Amino acid sequence: MTDTSIKIEKVRGPWADVWAQFRKHKGAMAALVMLGALAVVCLLGPFVWRIDPNFIESDTVKMFKMRNQGPSFAHPLGTDQLGRDMLARMMFGGRISLAVGMVAMLVAIFIGTTVGVLAGYFRRIDGLLMRLTDLFLALPLLPLLLVMIFLFRDPISGVLGPRLGTFLLIVMAIGLTSWMQAARVVRGEVLALKEREFVLAARSIGTPSRRIITRHILPNVLSPVLVAATLGIAAAIITESVLSFLGLGFPPDFPTWGRLLYDGIAEIRTYPERVVWPGLAISLTVLSVNYIGDGLRDALDPRIRGR
Amino acid sequence: MNFRTALLGAAAAFVLAPAAHAERGADGEVKVFYYQAVSTLNAYLSSGTKDVEAGSLVLEPLAGFDQDGQLFPRLAQDIPTVENGGVSADLTTITWKLKEGLVWSDGTPVTSADVKFTWEYCTHPEGGCAQGAKYEGVKSVDTPDDLTVVVTFENPKPYPYQPFTGGTAPILQKAQFESCIGAAAASCTEQNSKPIGTGPFIVTDFKVNDVVTLEANPNYRDPAKPAFGKVTLKGGGDALAAASAVMETGEFDYAWNTQINPEQQAQMEAGGKGTFVNAFGTLVERIEINMTNPDPALPEGERSTIKHPHPILTDANVRKALSMAIDRQTLVDVGYGGAGRPTCNLVPAPAFQASDNTECLTQDIEGAKALLETAGWTDTDGDGIRDKDGKKLALLYQTTVNPVRQDFQALIKGWWNEIGVEVELKATDPSVFFGGDAASPDTFQKFYADVQMFANNFDGTDAEPYMAQYLCDKIPGPDNQWQGENINRFCDPAYEALKATLSTTSGIEARGEIVKKLNDMITKDTNISIPLVDRGRFSAKSNTLDGFVMNSWDTELWNAQDWSRVK
What is the DSSP string of B458-492? Predict the structure, then answer.
């Protein structure tokens, strides 16, 4: 018996290969689903669950009854010490924390990749840029962040309003202080790449540096950049939590996961779930992001692919 | 001397035999928990309350304050007043008489030379005395005889009871501390950790920042006291652990400063091993109103200065409405429980100078709305926020980072939103907020916000320096490096005049009446300052400890000589 039908494999682009490989990584897939679920709940949840995260019952008798409730149908995650709905606060906080993570990561990756590629490709500015990177690495991060926020919060808030202003400031501050690892990784990769045959070939036919970088170098450093990027999200979410925890992040009526955690600490003995929810959300996000990074690294490495 | 005391003690024990706890040291050991550990017993070398209080078991002042804030004699025979001739008619001298037959714990007599030495010790220019304020304005201390001390002031002092009173100004033994004066003060470890005193206990062992053990003073002036033969004063942990050690495990008899949240308070009291004790002093959590414009658009150096009056808050009706909208009892229930009570006064105690102002205690949202409506603040554009002449009723409300204060901010924001006021919140790190750094924009003196919330109090029972904070010349600004206590930028000639009267009035009652009026001018008449919660001292005591009386005017161990074990 022979099979008469001939299977023609569809032509697949490189990204489809990556995706096929990525799907084989069970941990990464689970993490992707988890992160996706978290993001969807945070983004779309408030349209379904329409309780204002800052709503406090103005009738004090009712307010006292609503305080510190455990999980119920009316409040699936319970209420906090002022009777505010924890689910609504968690979703609102998640939006902020995830947005800070993504945007700060983009800033960090943009700076890191630029510095890394320039340093790796142009020997003349390599020393200068790498010493700059070392300088940033040597700076104590938290004090630097505190000083930046201290100096620029008022001017930026004055122009953009306190919320958008703080958001931009925190995102920029985190981005500007966490690009160094990416820069180092990228530089190392570029140093190796630029001696490879295809780059030499491109150079030999007179391709200008700009085009070599965009056509040949950048696509090939994508893999470490993507991995660094995912890890950067995790770091940014944690840094934002730290800042909120210290009271230097957003205004106090602006719940983020870090602030919810901070508020919960005071009542950890009586209501441990108040700490558990935001703590769990931060941990799950960071863990998911790390797993996705792991899966991406495997999927983007052609030597592992297809094994 | 020892023999005589012992005989006296025995006699007293015999006479009072039917009454319990009449014998010195009969009740064994009492265990006290100060979660901030004690580092010295010399109150002059530490501004820490814990050190002052621990030291008060050993060292005593001439007079102390009782639970009502009234002076009572300790080493002195009585309290000098103008009436009994102890205070001169021109209010420049006060004459203290020591009790007869007083001895130090080493058996030597207490004399006026010790008192004079104490003043010299604390006012020595190289000494760095932590309680220098107690001796401010003292010109000289004279000792006409062994039992008489005459304190002369540079200017007439209507309140002459600052020096040598309260746990922060105890008498040191001249013989012991003679070599420790000036720059040598801090290096006298032996003296500072084992001072010789007149109090009910003497130190037997002192482990810095850990444990102090004391035993009954064999030469204490009352032969039947103290009932406890031994005191262990343990440090370490936090307020929660301290409360638990008394209320739940029963390991300790008394724990100092157990400020925990109301729910934990209820939980611990259910344990049944102890009770929380509170006493209300002068610490008031309040909202201060900025009478000047903090608009960031103004040039630096003009923001929040008297050059630019506040566009909204100079309207007295707005300030009154803000106060009316607040439910103070709810704030207490959420934030402090037994450790607080609602108040409308900046000077809530002691009774002789506390105004009977209780108008603000009932929340009146509708009244606040009506008041704003009649004052011309209406919502013309339908966005839920009132406005008038193009000015929106929007406020920036700042405080320090502190879970209770953030809850207060959220609650008060809700109430203010309800009366049509837009509120933006801000929280600053407390070390920056209270740091007083003239370069920082976030200090409470700079007040780059419309309203701000914090707590403040005054030392002792005399409110005069406190009321003086609201004088026009105390307004902070760029020309005085933002140092000044009048952070509201309040300035009222009538207030100035009344304060001047206070400075020349003597007699506790008469002064109290003036303080009441000054208090009302700032609070209910103008609402420059909106008092919220009177925060008390809050400690835990075991049910087996008898005779403990909480005191917010002196050290909490003020009557340790009267403590005993419940039998």
Answer: -SSS--HHHHGGGSGGG---GGGTT--S-TT----
Whether residues B263 and A68 touch (CB distance < 8 A) is answered with yes
Of all residues in chain B, the percent with pLDDT exceeding 90 is 48
Q: Which residues from B are below 8 Å from A159, CB to CB?
A: none
| Residues in chain B closer than 8 A to A263 (CB atoms) | 403, 406
Judged by CB atoms within 8 Å, which residues 150-209 of A form the interface with B?
A: 150, 154, 157-158, 162
Predicted TM-score (pTM) above 0.90:
no
* DSSP type of residue B361: G
Residues B529, B332: Cα–Cα separation, whole Å: 18
CA-CA distance, A158 to A155, in Å (whole number)?
Answer: 5
Residues of chain A with confidence (pLDDT) below 70: 1-12, 245, 247, 302, 304-307
- Please answer yes or no on whether A252 and B406 come within 8 Å at the CB atom: yes
CA distances from A294 to A39, A288, B235 (A): 20, 10, 49
CB contact under 8 A, A269 and B440: no
Contact A251 B427 (CB under 8 A): yes
Phi-psi region of B270 (alpha: psi -120 to 50; beta: other; left: phi over 0): alpha
- On the question of pLDDT at B534 being above 90, the answer is yes
Mean residue pLDDT across chain B? 88
Q: Which of A60, A158, A266 sits opposite B261 (nearest CB)?
A: A266
pLDDT band for B16, please (50, 70, 90 cuts): very low
Q: What is the CA radius of gyration of chain A?
A: 24
How far is residue A56's CA from residue A263's CA, in Å, rounded to a whole number? 16
- Whether the pLDDT of residue B5 is over 60: the answer is no
Question: Nearest CA of chain B to the CA of A307: how many Å?
Answer: 54
pLDDT attached to residue A9:
62
A293: three-class secondary structure by DSSP: helix
B454-497 tens-digit pLDDT: 988 887 788 888 888 898 888 988 888 888 888 999 999 999 99
B295 in contact with chain A, both atoms CB, cutoff 8 A: no
Q: What is the pLDDT of residue A305?
A: 59
Q: For chain B, report the end-to-end CA distance as a whole number of angstroms.
A: 32
Q: Are B57 and B231 in contact (CB under 8 A)?
A: yes
Name the minimum distance, in Å, from the CA of A253 to any CA of chain B.
7
Contact (Cβ atoms closer than 8 angstroms) between residue B65 and residue B74: no
Smallest CA–CA distance, residue B399 to chain A, in Å, is 10
A162 vs B415, B424, B428: nearest CB: B424
- What distance in Å separates the CA atoms of residue B527 and residue B344, rounded to the nearest whole number? 10
CA distances from A272 to A104, A112, A276, B181, B189 (A): 30, 40, 6, 53, 45
Assess B382–A contact: CB distance below 8 Å, yes or no: no
Q: Give B405-414 pLDDT, tens digit per residue.
A: 888 998 999 8
Test B263 with A267 for CB contact under 8 angstroms: yes
